[in-house]
Amino acid sequence: MASRRLVPRLFAQCKSQGQLTSLRVSTLSPSTRRGFSASSSSGFSSRSSRASLGPLRWTAALIAVASPLLYMMAVEKPLQLDSPTLAERDVQLKRERPVTDYSPMRLRMEKFVKEQQQEIVRALEKADGTEFRQDEWQRPEGGGGITCVLQDGKVFEKAGVGVSVVYGTLPKPAIMKMRVNHKNLVEGTEIPDSLEFFAAGLSLIVHPRNPMAPTVHLNYRYFETAGPDGSPGAWWFGGGSDLTPSYLFEEDATNFHKALKDVCDAHDATYYSKFKKWCDEYFYNKHRGESRGVGGIFFDDLDETVADKEKSFAFIQDALKSFLPSYLPIVEKRKDMSFTPQEKEWQQIRRGKYVEFNLVHDRGTAFGLTTPGARVESILMSLPLTASWKYMYEPEPGSREQRLVDVLKTPREWV
């Protein structure tokens, strides 16, 4: 019964395509040929002729006629399927096999920063005695992140360690803007209407309670574009780490910078001086005429050649791993020092300057807030829990507070 219902529909479809107007009955069996005539109008002599064939012979005959039509439809009008997105490709890759040194750099960077995030969180929890709140989130466009935040701790008033993995599409205006610093973003002179991208990184901020213990910031990230087939296009690493004290202890600044210089020198003798200068210039509150802190290193667009991708990744790994041994000893030394209410007030004022930089000048904050589907809470986790702004406030001349401001207005060489 099913074949009887199917055959008329298939016959009508074939007839509408003009495939039954010149049936070559010579291709059919002798018994089947007797039931057909080469009628120019329909391809069959009559209803009685069709009925005489029987259901099976009738179906076989129609399939013989319809097969060329189906073949031509497949060849001439192939089914149009959307190509998988970069995010979908990576999900499939991670399903098929674990991430190794032979995996795409995207997946290796994601794995590395997630491992480092948990190591840093465990170390800060041990130093404070308070657990982080960990929020895992997803992006509809692909990717997601893990935001870990500690608030009102014993040692840290606020600490945030966040990992983000972002898949998205750059529109043409964004491509044109980014191409100013990245000539290899697209090949040739024609700018495409859109371009898939991947970005992953780890960001952290630690604001201690004690004004004698410095705030620290760190960020290391990787950015990559992709072709229509998922192949990697332009890529670069960026990041750095910097120290922001409320009260200057020269040995702290020196030790922090020395740890960064040791990492830089192990990979390239030119890195530290170049990246230290970049940090002093980038973390600068132009409207205040002073640096945000005593600096560290900062770099962006590290994409020397494709052959150097492994070299750059090795540098990123060592730089991030150097954070805990360079910062925790400073916190241990300062966290229990005595301080006055006036010194706590100065810390709040310095935090206000920190907020000003992050909201007015920081490119990372601006990029995050303008990315479609941005998770604002994660982007603004770097802001302190408390801060203060006093109108026309100036420190006493010759005071410890003024000594810090003098250094911020004229950056020093610490190693």
UniProtKB/TrEMBL annotation:
It is an enzyme of class 1 (oxidoreductase). Its EC number is 1.3.3.3. Residues 30-50 are annotated as: Disordered. GO terms for molecular function: coproporphyrinogen oxidase activity. It comes from the Eukaryota. One of its GO terms (biological process) is protoporphyrinogen IX biosynthetic process. One of its GO terms (cellular component) is cytoplasm. Pathway: Porphyrin-containing compound metabolism; protoporphyrin-IX biosynthesis; protoporphyrinogen-IX from coproporphyrinogen-III (O2 route): step 1/1. Keywords: Heme biosynthesis, Oxidoreductase, Porphyrin biosynthesis. Homodimer. Belongs to the aerobic coproporphyrinogen-III oxidase family. This is coproporphyrinogen oxidase. It comes from Phialemonium atrogriseum.
